[in-house]
Amino acid sequence: MLKIKISQTLPNPLQINLECAPGELHALVGPSGSGKTTVLRTIAGLNKPATGKIECDEEVWFECDDPRPKALHLAPAARSCGFLFQQYALFPHLNTLGNVLIPLQNSGLTGSKRNAISMDLLDRMGISNLAVRMPHQLSGGQQQRVALARALARQPKVLLLDEPFSAIDAPTRQGLYKTLADLRKDLNIPILLVTHDLREADLLADQITVIDKGISLQTAAPQVLFQRPRNSRVAELVGINNMFNGVFDSGSLSWDGCKMVFSVTDKGKIPPKVRVAWVIPQSGLSVHNKPTENSVPVLVEKMSSLGQIAVIQLRIQDSENTVEWEASSAEVKRLKMQVGSLMHLELDGDQIHIMPLRPINDPRRFVDH
Q1: pTM
Q2: In the predicted model, what is the mean pLDDT of the chain?
Q3: Are 129 and 202 in the same domain?
């Protein structure tokens, strides 16, 4: 188990609290400059926070409390971390096998044993036939596989991945996804992945932590995160399109700029008559040709096709609010939908999720009621 609880104010704010179990892949997402890579560097010992604790496999790598004059801070070489960088960082003067051998140089193993371990890793990466090639003779995907084999050479207790797939073409990326999925089963160690790609995080991760300005805002399973963000800032960062404002009052939710009022479960966390942000997932939307008891009239403003999926922008009649609806091309055809059509949108109140509404400069925006 990897446990991280760290805090600092300089040179950049950092307030992170998360755990990653063996065999679990934990993704860190957030905007550029939010502190995702700093978290990995801190775990690896390349950055020293002001206070907190980092523990891996019941071994403390860093610990410092305010009253203590000195911190326990293991050097990077003393931490059992495999670190995979975005730009591969291969030694250009060494061949594939030589690059993988580097971490084993001071391991105390015989040369034949080091070679055997390295060749086994290259075989697991599917590139043992490239052992004598130089880095400039390899494709980007092959170089990344070499870098991954090197990161695993010393059997690390944690694997840190810093946007390892961002510079690779889509087909190669899919192959590396499969390699990583297979490795997870065998390694049984915590894996932390920094990524800008939310779909990648959704596809690969067991847990996702959203980071903004150095602060971990929410940690949750992908399905929970995308359907029930903690607050409006999290919803914004994970790309939820259908986010609106309203007033919540003891189970009743109004919609700014619209006459609709929804019945929403009151969990006792939001005070009465308070302004809130609210979101609704695609599964909570349905569109009809004719009005229903709970529908609202909408006009089709825009239609975009993405293969077999169509993305439709619907404007609530007599309102400035727009809703983005995703449907199959077959469903759009069945509804005979086109730009300018009058349709009827139904929103499932049971799937509406309400959140605290905080101004961007209010630090409380990170906190639930």
Answers
A1: 0.85
A2: 90
A3: yes
